[in-house]
């Protein structure tokens, strides 16, 4: 038997239970991984609350790192003893060990430890696809990135700086503003004190930005559109404040023929060759020192409910991990 977090109903943090589970042998295409650390991400909240429905009872957690214990038939890219990390479906990372699809596993370079890997896979791969594929940044652009002091945000600050991009980041406190600046964010906007649309226009001389990366959703959506230059791209990749309400396509036309996309990491890593290339790019950025992964919160696995409470209360900065 091994320990894991399970939920039998959707709801608040209290629905998560720390229980004994049986971890069997991997079937075809599967691997059993003994986990050293698990990542905490806002998408876990969406699954817990039922915003992203899943069959119940179920596990939670989308990323982790550890050692392969066994593999099933047809698995050739990893073997027992390999150090691996992953970000992918199905949920279930909140566990000491799990049997999971081997297709999402990537081998870890020796230079990257388990805790760093568990803290960076989902968030780091998110920044990779946002900056490299969704709206490819060449260098020289000025961009707006919401939640700049969060786990994704602090990686984005550093990655933008490495690319020669001027990043404007929104934050919820002066302390978070200092944290974002220390990681390379050129301009910070405390949305509790300032109007971020007015500040973006001021910083850009009234031109607006070519792209907005927005994981906040409902509270920032229309304001984000107002920050875009004509023909700009709205990248809505999360909904921490709630889902974006229905809107007229005329909102895009009236602001200068804007583009909009709602990307998901799991579509970008669906092909093995894409996952390998994206992971290699992320690993390179981390090993080079251009991107440092800040693990600012660690919780024991059995304290996952408190970790969720702190995440939803926006008390966390940088990355958070659970230790099985």
UniProtKB/TrEMBL annotation:
Keywords in alphabetical order: NADP, Oxidoreductase
GO cellular component, one term: cytosol
PROSITE patterns found in the cross-reference section: QOR_ZETA_CRYSTAL
Keyword Aminoacyl-tRNA synthetase recorded: no
Domain Enoyl reductase (ER): 11-322
SUPFAM superfamilies (UniProt xref): GroES-like, NAD(P)-binding Rossmann-fold domains
Gene Ontology MF, one: quinone reductase (NADPH) activity
Protein name stated in the entry: Quinone oxidoreductase
Upper lineage: Bacteria, Pseudomonadati, Pseudomonadota, Betaproteobacteria, Burkholderiales
């Amino acid at each position: 038997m091994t320990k894991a977090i399970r939920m039998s109903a959707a709801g608040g943090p209290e629905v998560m239970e720390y229980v004994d589970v049986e971890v069997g042998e991997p079937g075809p295409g599967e691997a059993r991984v003994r986990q050293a650390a698990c990542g905490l991400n806002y998408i876990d909240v969406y699954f817990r609350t039922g915003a992203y429905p899943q069959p119940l009872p179920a596990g939670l957690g989308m990323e982790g790192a550890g050692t392969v214990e066994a593999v099933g038939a047809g698995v050739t890219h990893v073997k027992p003893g390999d150090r691996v990390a992953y970000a992918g479906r199905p949920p279930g990372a909140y566990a000491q060990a799990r049997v999971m699809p081997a297709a999402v596993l990537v081998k870890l370079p020796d230079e990257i430890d388990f805790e760093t890997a568990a803290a960076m896979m989902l968030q780091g791969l998110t920044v990779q696809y946002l900056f490299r594929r969704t709206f490819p940044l060449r260098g020289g652009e000025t961009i707006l990135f919401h939640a700049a002091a969060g786990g994704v945000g602090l990686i984005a600050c550093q990655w933008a700086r490495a690319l020669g991009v001027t990043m404007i980041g929104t934050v919820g406190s002066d302390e978070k503003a200092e944290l974002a600046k220390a990681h390379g964010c050129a301009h910070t906007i405390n949305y509790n004190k300032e109007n971020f649309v007015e500040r973006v226009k001021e910083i850009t001389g009234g031109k607006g930005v070519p792209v907005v990366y927005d994981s906040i959703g409902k509270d920032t959506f229309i304001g984000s559109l107002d920050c875009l230059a004509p023909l700009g791209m709205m990248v809505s990749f999360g909904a921490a404040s709630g889902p974006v309400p229905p809107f007229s396509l005329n909102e895009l036309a009236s602001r200068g023929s804007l583009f909009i996309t709602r990307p998901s990491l799991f579509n970008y890593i669906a092909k093995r060759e894409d996952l390998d290339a994206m992971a290699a790019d992320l690993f390179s950025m981390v090993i080079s020192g251009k991107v440092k992964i800040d693990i600012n919160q660690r919780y024991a696995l059995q304290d996952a409910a408190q970790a969720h409470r702190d995440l939803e209360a926006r008390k966390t900065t940088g990355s958070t991990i659970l230790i099985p």
